[in-house]
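re: the backbone from monday

yeah here it is again, tokenized this time
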């Protein structure tokens, strides 16, 4: 009976590579992967989050001839009379408090979202790593899932977080596989 041929040096190298893999910090790998998934969720949900529009339509009479109107023409124009500016809900994804989101300027960038995800706490519950991505703006759930209106009607939800989570679920296996391949390449020097 023949068993085949094998070089002893290859077995030693395999043993050493397996020991290297075993000594790899798998907890750190899982935490880093969790943070990357959180950052990717933020990169999906931030642009999908609706921004409030506080402009109202007003009728205006043209005072002189212009490119679009002749003097005396009556047309509608959208103006912001309230002074409120939209974007608090969108800024909430990288804010610690609602006040911080309301007082911020501009919308979060991809770099800000990634930096925010890096400092999110990660807990381990059994064999599951949990990272909570929270929007502290009090009306976030109403915009997400819908709500009653003062007149008794119903305002449909936008489902921006739900849709972003579904998109990430589709991408997550490939993201995790790529990170795992990098870990294995490092252990086996490939």
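seq for it, each position gets an aa:
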């Amino acid at each position: 009976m023949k068993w085949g041929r094998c070089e002893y040096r290859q077995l030693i190298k395999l043993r050493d590579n397996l020991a290297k893999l075993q000594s790899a910090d798998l907890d750190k790998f899982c935490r880093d992967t969790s943070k990357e998934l959180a950052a990717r969720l933020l990169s999906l949900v931030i642009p999908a989050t609706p921004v409030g529009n506080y402009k109202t339509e007003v009728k205006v009479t043209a005072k002189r001839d212009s490119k679009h109107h002749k003097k005396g023409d009556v047309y509608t124009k959208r103006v912001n009379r309230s002074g409120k500016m939209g974007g608090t809900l969108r800024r909430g994804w990288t804010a610690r408090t609602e006040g911080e989101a309301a007082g911020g300027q501009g919308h979060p960038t991809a770099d800000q979202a990634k930096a925010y995800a890096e400092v999110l706490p990660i807990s381990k519950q059994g064999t599951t790593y949990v990272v909570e991505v929270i929007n502290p703006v009090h009306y976030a759930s109403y915009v997400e899932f819908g709500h009653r209106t003062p007149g008794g009607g119903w305002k449909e939800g936008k489902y921006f977080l739900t849709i972003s989570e579904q998109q990430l679920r589709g991408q997550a296996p490939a993201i995790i596989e790529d990170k795992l391949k990098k870990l294995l390449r490092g252990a086996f020097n490939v």
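DSSP finds seven helices and six strands in the chain. The longest strand covers residues 56-61.
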